[in-house]
């Protein structure tokens, strides 16, 4: 990242508002796909303590027969372009149209909503750092299934898939434990991102203290903007995690809530680290302004000392630059007729300048 302009926060908000109001005037629950979205791909995972089936499905209508064969299923959808496939999945799993509308109308803030026999959870997973990029992940948790929607290919869930393949505890539990594993993987994905921002802030602090603050300012501004955007993600994420733990009746069984509490603690840590880095970014901005001000003061002090030294020299030169004729009156600058008048005037200037320099050094002004 070179510190080049990336557009301000208000520009980003205008872009977001323009995207959200594209379906303005349509009835609630109207599904509108983004033509620029990634192609829709459906990956099916059916598993149990002694079984695991993974396959890619082109036709969603093949899913009902698969649901009958497996105790727990995970349907992972990447890409939100194919509206018919998404609508078919909604019909198969009995999803509320409002929740599907939120799936397509990205980005949404992290939240949890209950729709009868299933729960709807929205998260944002990090994609890149500086500039910060995040992607919406929508989860539908119901009896015997977990349905996830992602904006495009590539995620932080490979560890969860590997645990399923290795036949660890996750295959013996219900979809609630799988949902916890997905949430935990997304939450933990923010820690490497924050570590990177911490390294960048330390680097910027060193550059500012070394006097290279001019080149550090654009990058510092970018970091502050990213941390503000990150706070707008992490804050509702923490509140959403707390809502999942407080839900009545409980969404997760007691043995899974223990792990979910640990995931909530991680969300709190993310919030604390984000706030700490935001404060550090503000402190670095103040340090930059203070350093720039001190450098300006040093320059002004040097220029002032130089000007002060030359003021009496200019006075002497001005006096002897007056056009008075010594032939008219013996009082008209008689030293102009001295044999060594010019060397004496230069010597006087040198002595005055030397005395001023000695005085300034004794006062610690130099």
Short summary:
With 366 residues, this protein is an alpha+beta fold. It has 3 domains: 28-170, CorA soluble domain-like (Beta Polymerase, domain 2, 2-Layer Sandwich), CATH 3.30.460; 189-297, Methane Monooxygenase Hydroxylase, Chain G, domain 1 (Up-down Bundle); 298-362, Methane Monooxygenase Hydroxylase, Chain G, domain 1. It contains 10 helices and 7 strands.
Assigned CATH class of the largest domain: Alpha Beta
Write the element-wise H/E pattern from the N-terminal end onward: HEEHEHHEEEEHHHHHH
Using only C-alpha atoms, the radius of gyration works out to: 35 Å
Contiguous low-pLDDT stretches (5 residues minimum) are: 1-5, 12-19
- The amount of beta strand, in percent, is 5-15%
Helix content: 55-70%
CATH architecture of the largest domain: 2-Layer Sandwich
Label the overall shape. rod-shaped
Question: What does the average pLDDT come to?
Answer: 86
Distance between the termini: 40 Å
The main sheet comes to:
7 strands, mixed
- The overall number of domains is 3
Account of the 3D structure:
By secondary structure, the protein is an alpha+beta fold. The chain starts with 8 loop residues before the first helix and ends with a helix. The chain has helices at 9-20, 63-69, 83-93, 97-104, 158-166, 175-188, 190-210, 213-246, 254-319, 341-362; strands spanning 41-48, 51-57, 72-78, 111-115, 118-128, 133-142, 145-150. It has ten helices and seven strands. 24% of the residues are buried. The protein has three domains: 28-170, CorA soluble domain-like (Beta Polymerase, domain 2, 2-Layer Sandwich), CATH 3.30.460.20; 189-297, Magnesium transport protein CorA, transmembrane region (Methane Monooxygenase Hydroxylase, Chain G, domain 1, Up-down Bundle), CATH 1.20.58.340; 298-362, Magnesium transport protein CorA, transmembrane region (Methane Monooxygenase Hydroxylase, Chain G, domain 1). The longest helix is centred in the last third of the chain and has 66 residues, at 254-319. α8 packs antiparallel against α9. A seven-stranded mixed β-sheet has the order 2-1-3-7-6-5-4, sandwiched between helices.
């Amino acid at each position: 990242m070179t510190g080049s302009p990336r557009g301000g926060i208000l520009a980003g908000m205008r872009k977001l508002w323009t995207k959200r109001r594209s379906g303005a005037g349509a009835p609630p629950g109207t599904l509108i796909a983004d033509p620029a979205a990634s192609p829709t791909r459906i990956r099916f995972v059916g598993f149990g303590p002694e079984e695991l089936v993974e396959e890619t499905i082109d036709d969603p209508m093949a899913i009902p027969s698969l649901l009958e064969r497996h105790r727990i299923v995970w349907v992972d959808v990447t890409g939100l372009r194919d509206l018919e496939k998404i609508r078919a999945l909604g019909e198969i799993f009995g999803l509320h149209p409002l929740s599907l509308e939120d799936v397509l109308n990205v980005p949404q803030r992290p939240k949890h909503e209950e729709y009868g026999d299933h729960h709807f959870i929205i998260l944002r997973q990090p994609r890149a750092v500086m500039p910060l990029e995040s992607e919406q992940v929508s989860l539908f948790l119901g009896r015997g299934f977990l349905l996830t929607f992602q904006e495009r290919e590539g995620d932080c869930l490979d560890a969860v898939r590997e645990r399923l393949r290795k036949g660890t505890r996750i295959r013996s539990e219900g979809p609630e434990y799988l949902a916890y594993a997905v949430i935990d993987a997304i939450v933990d994905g923010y820690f490497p991102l924050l570590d990177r921002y911490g390294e960048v802030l330390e680097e910027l602090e060193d550059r500012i203290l070394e006097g290279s603050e001019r080149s550090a300012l654009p990058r510092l501004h970018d970091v502050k903007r990213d941390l503000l955007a990150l706070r707008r993600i992490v804050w509702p994420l923490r509140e959403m995690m707390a809502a999942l733990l407080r839900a009545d009746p409980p969404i997760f069984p007691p043995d899974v809530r223990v792990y979910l509490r640990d995931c909530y603690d991680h969300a709190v840590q993310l919030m604390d680290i984000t706030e700490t880095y935001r404060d550090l970014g503000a402190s670095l901005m103040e340090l930059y302004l203070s350093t720039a001000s001190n450098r300006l003061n040093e320059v002004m002090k040097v220029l002032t000392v130089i000007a002060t030294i030359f003021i009496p020299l200019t006075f002497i030169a001005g006096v002897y630059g007056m056009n008075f004729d010594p032939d008219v009156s013996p009082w008209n600058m008689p030293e102009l007729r001295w044999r060594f008048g010019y060397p004496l005037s230069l010597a006087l200037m040198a002595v005055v300048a030397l005395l001023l320099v000695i005085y300034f050094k004794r006062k610690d002004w130099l």
